[in-house]
């Protein structure tokens, strides 16, 4: 029960933060991405804050023996950059740049009545399903992250 409640609390805090920072507004996000036009740098502060929290969490939290509500930490171990990772990043970036939504803010924006978010979420779910149709062949690493 503690695990579910902590996940709920984290989701609520995340959703509140997305709303407060206006990342659920596609026009705000597209203004941030328009670096050659009427650039709105305000979301850079949101990203800097998220990076600061992440740096703290990934540096100090794993020094604990285990999380409060799990038997062990679930940290990524793969550091290879392969073609699938690069392709996924490109598709994510193109989608974000075209419509101003990424998964978390799109789901949160439903509460604001953005019908566009429903279209985006439907397309995202279809995209998730299509990834299972792509054959996975052994890939060579393009690079290895430090």
Protein described:
By secondary structure, this protein is mostly helical. It has one domain. About 60% of the residues lie in helices and about 5% in strands. It has six helices and two strands. The chain has helices at about 1-20, 25-35, 40-60, 85-100, 105-110, 115-130; strands at about 80, 145. It has a two-stranded antiparallel sheet with strand order 1-2. The protein is globular. The chain starts with a helix and ends with a strand. The mean pLDDT is about 85.
- Give the SSE order as H and E letters: HHHEHHHE
Total beta strand runs: 2
Strand content: under 5%
State the low-pLDDT regions, or none: none
Placed side by side, the strands forming the largest sheet appear as: 1-2
Averaging pLDDT over every residue, what do you get?
83
The number of domains is 1
Helix segment count?
Answer: 6
- Global geometry: globular
Structure class:
mainly alpha
- N-to-C CA distance: 37 Å
Tell me about the biggest sheet?
2 strands, antiparallel
Rounded to an integer in angstroms, the radius of gyration calculated over CA atoms is 18 Å
State the helical fraction.
Answer: 55-70%
